[in-house]
Amino acid sequence: MSLRAFRLIRLIRLARSNPTLRSLLDSIALTVRAIGNFMVVLAIYIYVFSLLGMEIFAGKFKFDKNGNYDLENGAVPR
């Protein structure tokens, strides 16, 4: 297990000495940060539109005892 840590340290030293690999790792890090910001905004949009859908469609769908959609004789589930 401890030998894996030494392999990781060797990879970090290689990245420091090689400017091309370092620029590649820097660009990957920037991309991950940008995707993280996008994911936060996407989560907010999903949350807002789910609340909007719950507000618009609450109580509109009625189902019978078997769980089938029945607009006329169905009941609103709890």
Please outline what is shown here.
The protein is mostly helical.
Number of strands: 0
Distance between the termini: 53 Å
* Main sheet attributes: strand count, strand direction, barrel closure: none
Uncertain stretches of 5 or more adjacent residues: none
Write down the overall mean pLDDT.
Answer: 82
**Residue share in β-strands:** under 5%
The structural class is mainly alpha
So what's the oligomer here? single chain
* Share in helix: over 70%
- What's the SSE pattern? HH
Annotation field: number of helices: 2
Based on CA inertia axes, which overall geometry fits?
Answer: elongated
Radius of gyration: 26 Å
Report on this model:
- The protein has 78 residues and is mostly helical.
- The protein has a domain at 2-46.
- Helices cover 71% and strands 0% of the residues.
- It is built from two helices and no strands.
- It has helices spanning 2-17, 19-57.
- Helix 1 (2-17) crosses helix 2 (19-57).
- It is elongated.
